[in-house]
Amino acid sequence: MKQFTLLLAIALISFYSCAQQEPSKVSAETPVKINYVTEVVVPELDIPWGMEFLPDGSMLITEKAGTLIHFKDDKKTIINGLPKVYVRGQGGLMDIKLHPDYKNNGWIYFSYASAEGEDDGGNTAIMRAKLNGNTVTNVEHLYKGVPNTKKGQHWGSRLEFDNEGHLYFSIGDRGNRDVNPQDITRDGGKIYRLHADGSIPEDNPFTDNNNAKQAIFSYGHRNPQGMALHPETGKIWVNEHGPKGGDEINIVEKGKNYGWPVISYGINYSGTKFTEITEKEGMQQPLFYWVPSIAPSGMAFPTSSNYPDWEGSVLVGSLKFEYLERLVLKNNKVVKREKLFEGLGRFRDIKQAPDGYLYAAVEGLGIVKIVPDSF
């Protein structure tokens, strides 16, 4: 009996120490007591895709349908002057990001679906502009994916700045799985890096290849809809949609290939396989993957003293299962999963504001603020 107990203990230790990357074996218990609650601060939004906080504490919100909202003093004001947004499938007006030195230069960055250029349909575009009253001015177009396509899926697209002031953004594979992601001469299925003015950094990984899209920073991605700067390492993290299974979290590294669709932990929606392998030399493994898929969107690292028990975590919204997921990290491994606010709605974005509180964009509900339940 003692020998059996010892063997059981060894087996359990091995299970928990070796399975940190596999979601089916990571602890996912919902705590008995939820320590935080949500309060709606911006009501009655349809699909709020992105949000940013201005220095005066007001908020800019993008609605996928193409509307930019300024929310101040409990009032919504529609901002005019944006270029025409091509709304199709998953595409529309998407992310928004302030320049790190916004107070001095006033630049605001947007990702959106654009029909500009040759061919019918559209592709993901990046622009910047300034806010003058209720109008955006000084519009500058920084990047436009090509070719246009009428396909409605996999536009990306998140925006993030690193600590050196580079602008990163994602464009999904645009539904062209077997062509775009592995080809650096084509847009789609990539993470890109630009200077804030839209110029190409000389140290981008493919600037010595005249045929390559020189804004590319990494490739082999499917559809990244979450992006965040790690507060300690300064690395760009992304989450991206897999097919049926195989959603991923990846740490973006210069010039690396993240494998889509050559390697994947997912299968076709029909249940058939499109690849037999989950790893290959020269292709990066995800930091974490989900099976089944949760349809991840939005990503934030809580660093505020308002959430002391969430230190060392990353938060990811789930569109499919309508909850916010907290992943506890240790040495760049996920050691615990926690589901928060189940049933509230499709979590499209999550962001820590300058006031130290976390705000989430929930489809059909609005923007909610996450506060301690004793607040």
From TrEMBL:
Residues 1-19 form the signal peptide. It comes from the Bacteria. InterPro entries: 6-blade_b-propeller_TolB-like, Glc/Sorbosone_DH, Quinoprot_gluc/sorb_DH_b-prop. Keywords: Signal. Residues 45-363 form the Glucose/Sorbosone dehydrogenase domain. Transmembrane segments: none annotated. The keyword Thylakoid does not apply. This is Glucose/arabinose dehydrogenase. It comes from Jejuia pallidilutea.
